[in-house]
Fold this sequence. Notes:
The structure is a single chain. By secondary structure, this protein is mainly α. 69% of the residues lie in helices and 0% in strands. This is Steroid 5-alpha reductase C-terminal domain-containing protein. Keywords: Membrane, Transmembrane, Transmembrane helix.
Amino acid sequence: MLLPPVIGTAIPVVKTLSECASYSRTIEPYLPQLYSLPEQIWTHIADPVALRNIYVATNPVISGLAFSIALFPIFLVVSEVNRNWSQVDRVWSILPTLYHIHYAVWGRMSGLNTDKVDKILLFSLLWTTRLTYNYWRRGGYQIGSEDYRWNLIKGWIGTPAFFVLNVLFTSSIQSVLLFAVTTPTYLMLLSSRLEPRFTPLELTLSRALIPLIALEWYADGQQWAFHEAKATYRKTAKVPQGYTRAQLERGFNTTGMFKYSRHPNFAAEQSIWVLLYVIGALVTGEWFNWTAFGMIQYLGVFAGSTPLTEWISAGKYPEYKIYQKRVGKFLPWPFGKGWDEKEMEVLGPKVTEEARKEKAKKGQ
Length: 364
């Protein structure tokens, strides 16, 4: 049986808030734990007390990183066996909150004040609830459900290259990303040894995470309501209340928040993780620190996936290119013509007819 860890062996003794954000002090000395952790767990797999001591004796970033890496072969095998590459997608809404729970549990077991972490955990639980519910009602957890973009990419680059992509990104980096984006919470945990509570400004920013989730919730609801109305219209030819025939025949949502932003939910989602980084930076006083890696990775996913989504939409819906010119991708454009429904009721059919003729000409 392993003895309980000595205080200070899993996290550094910090003397200033700035030191909490130092990679060389708070992460680098504990990297050897990452290499020895699998053997320790395997050796004591049948000893719950020893496993508890290993957990507390391991730096929480290292154990969280180890878990995200351990998920990689699981995602890889399951995706290749089932020929379905949305395995990480199914747990996207869950893993970040598991890591926040991990920080809270580890902090309590180590005798640290977790007031800051608990407040972030509350936000994270709400974030998970919203995203998981939306993914569920869109059929994401149904057997065989998959993000249509994966097969599109596979068709472009071929099966061998797609397997390499699965190994290097889809099943691996994405898993680590969902851990890395939560690392600002580690800074808050470390800082609690010097400042156990948020300052008024930090508390205000942590509470600002909740309205961003609410914005996502409303955007999800508006998108869901539109597509339900569109499906009803296609089935019955009757226009549901709150919409016009032109809006439904257009095919994509230009109502509510989507009149001012092409992706309001994406804007809020990115803002959430940028704000979490800002809170960590504010807590430590270090505006540029190593936890930016996770935030940048997360923004990178949107930078790569959003243009692909829009390319598909522009090819599917003739009016979408006009929508792109007049409505901001994430944030509303303060200048410009904007989206005018009355104008588009006249212009839209013309654009659609021109696109139909162009398609017919190419098909000849």
